[in-house]
Prior knowledge:
6 strands, 6 helices, single chain, 29% helix, 270 residues, alpha/beta, six-stranded mixed β-sheet
Amino acid sequence: xxxxxxxxxxxxxxxxxxxxxxxxxxxxxxxxxxxxxxxxxxxxxxxxxxxxxxxxxxxxxxxxxxxxxxxxxxxxxxxxxxxxxxxxxxxxxxxxxxxxxxxxxxxxxxxxxxxxxxxxxxxxxxxxxxxxxxxxxxxxxxxxxxxxxxxxxxxxxxxxxxxxxxxxxxxxxxxxxxxxxxxxxxxxxxxxxxxxxxxxxxxxxxxxxxxxxxxxxxxxxxxxxxxxxxxxxxxxxxxxxxxxxxxxxxxxxxxxxxxxxxxxxxxxxx
Length: 270
């Protein structure tokens, strides 16, 4: 291949995503809400979860999610949720690897109900609010997150500027940015304090800056609060990757004694 043809081929490779975006197309297959985490988890199992989610045949223990004391490394200008913990909690429950116990707002609400009962505000007879019925967290899971963005458009635009016909695309090329998210999940045994498993996940995509188009592998569906921007979609995908890596280790753990399953209408003959 001659040098001229080599330069043209390189430029064509860089410009092709821009042309696809301009036509309203993208090589990324996104779901209804735009990111890789969606659906629900509960007595009916995982509903409309990502097809890429790795699951367990049965839960091995109870699990509490813990906020990272060092916070999460992404700019407030992205207008993302303050914490990815609810996202990871959904993944943990959908995968069926753990019974998830609440140590955040749900726990505070439980304590408040007990205080109201003791203060005589709530009914005493027939009350379902009792002390000593909470489940312990046998494991804790702590997430970590770093998000970065690099301006790749100027380099692409500089190449196109020197090429006839393609130099008209310089303005569009200069909008391209590389977005990268790196997530980690640390699993700790609450009885021994030993870190029994750790995993990382990473995603890098090119944000074309045209109609929200992304070039890169993100996968399936949407996570509330994380599908409103390209940054959120990339972060959600990184946590899905980290979760799937963690499941490989969790499957090797010996199952702990678990509390009774949540009562359902089917069990009651309803």
